[in-house]
Amino acid sequence: MSEKIRVVHYLNQFFAQFGGEEKADIGPGFKEGPIGPGRALEQALGQQGEVVATCFCGDNYFAEHLEEVTEELLLQMASFKPQLLIAGPAFESGRYGVACGAIGQAAQERLGIRAVAGMDAENAGTGLYRKKVYIVDSGSSVVRMATVIQRMTALGLKLVQGMPLGRPEEEGYFPRGIKRNTFAAKPPAERAVDMLLAKIRGELFESEIATPQFHHIKPAGAIRDLSSAVIALVTDGGLVTEGNPERMEPGRPTRFTTIAVEGIDRLDSKEFDVVHSGYDTAFANQDPHRLVPLDVMRELEQEGVIGKLHESIHTTGGAHAAVENATRIGQGIAERLKSAGVSGVILTST
Amino acid sequence: MIPVAKEVGSLRAMASGGIVSPTGNPDLPPEKEKEFRRDLVLRALQILKEDVHE
Prior knowledge:
- The complex is a heterodimer.
- In chain A, helix 1 crosses helix 6 and helix 3 packs across helix 4 (94-111).
- By secondary structure, chain A is of the alpha/beta class.
- A 6-stranded mixed beta sheet of chain A has the order 2-3-1-4-5-6, sandwiched between helices. Chain A has a 4-stranded mixed beta sheet with strand order 9-11-7-12, with helices on one face.
- Chain A has 11 helices and 12 strands.
- Chain A has 2 domains: 5-171, Glycogen Phosphorylase B (Rossmann fold); 226-348, no CATH class.
- Chain A has helices at residues 38-45, 59-64, 66-78, 94-111, 124-129, 145-161, 168-171, 188-200, 282-286, 294-302, 323-339, and strands spanning 5-12, 29-32, 49-57, 84-87, 114-119, 134-137, 230-235, 239-241, 257-260, 272-274, 308-315, 344-348.
- In chain A, helix 5 (124-129) links the parallel strand 5 (114-119) and strand 6.
- The mean pLDDT of chain A is 93.
- By secondary structure, chain B is mainly α.
- Chain B has one domain (2-49).
- The two termini of chain B are 18 Å apart.
- Classes of the chains: A alpha/beta, B mainly alpha.
- The interface between A and B is large, with 39 and 33 residues.
């Protein structure tokens, strides 16, 4: 029998048995051996490992001093020479979850050890850290503590021992956004037909492609009076200033740019380019108004149909945009327009 | 592209002049093309004035 794997366990003030919210401001600390849920961890480790120490911190204190607490805990943790950090499970507690993710990521990166956390899918820590740290789906109920600890332990031992991991749903952790090639028993055509037949028969089947999730968006209210409204022009058609000095990506965009148009009545084709890998840009390059209707918007402003045309055009190139990036770009543009007092947008899309 | 826009929650969507020239029509002479564009923009502004429901 080889030597036992040395495990450090991270807990918040509640699970480390200091108290509830009234103790959430206690600072970081260490104790030798397991505490509270650490006993279930010790049991799950069996002969393969031991809990050499438990580190803890109050949830509020950690959240308010993220960097200092992480430093402090890492420093002390190193002296126990652990090979694995088990953090939580934190269930639905957001501050606890974020603490587990932060300490897990830091232990991996700085001490070079493996880490496993446990959280509910809705925990803020899951969204923030699932790509960096293995996070076991704990569900929201503390009743599942023993089961969750067993899963976290099994995953942690595999990681330390360098054993191959199964798919997220088999091992019980949240997908980390990593694709791995595997051999399937049947070719794609047969698998697709099997799935279709299962669907027709009303049986369960599992798609091999994760479809992007769109969040529900509440539509903005109507603009009652256009003649006092500030209207902005936005496009995902790739309008840039001549020569594309900011090097906007023609496809798979990760950002947006702005073009100042205050006092400008027309977009001169000599001063602008259209950079977009998803459509034939020849017509828009000949006359940028075919993409962004600045000329008529300026006229409508002068005629008083709209109150004001916003001073900048926001632009990005929408070809093959990942939903995640497109959402971030959209939010970035929306924030700027809202803070500038814009009440409506005409977004031209190609 | 309108079904795509609505699918992702952009409920104020209208057909444009086409993929390669959303606010233009290269087949028209310049003056007519600008009229076409003005008409599109006025319709877009009208949509901004209306309430939409999910």
